[in-house]
Amino acid sequence: MFLRKVESKRKSGYTHTTVQLVESYRNEEGKSRTRILYHFGPLDKFLQADADKLVDSVLKMKGEVFLDHLEKFGSAKNFGDLFTIFRILKELKFFQEIEKIKESETRIEFDLVGHINALISNRINDPSSKLKLLSWLELVYLPELKSSGINYNNLLRSMDF
Fold this sequence. Notes:
Blueprint: E1 2-9, E2 15-26, E3 32-42, H1 48-62, H2 66-73, H3 80-91, H4 94-105, H5 112-125, H6 130-136, H7 152-160
Antiparallel strand pairs: 1-2, 2-3
Helix pairs in contact: 3-5, 5-7
Protein name: Transposase, IS4 family protein
Organism: Flexistipes sinusarabici (strain ATCC 49648 / DSM 4947 / MAS 10)
């Protein structure tokens, strides 16, 4: 069983997306088929809360409660691909070069390396504006970076650097 998004294009160019609960099975000839168990309706009306309730109700049948676990442990932050980006930049000694130039040629007092790391990682992982980058930082873990120290004006100054 799984959730499936179904997209259909309209003549006007609009793409209508719906969500379905689908089950895989094999027919009499042994061919793999799917059958729709439940049609949730348009994706824009199928909210995250609905998905959480669905998962919670399925887990209740097994004797577990998902929402209780979520409140207890919280959500996880994205890390894997960001760690790869961080290691590549570190391997290239990118941050060391920035520190050398910063110390010898500028009077910058904020964490320039951290701001540039955030800009590069965001651009590769989830390209967005500098303002949206601040909310993106709450969803990810970047090694050796305190996201509370990142601010919008320093991001712009880092780009100038």
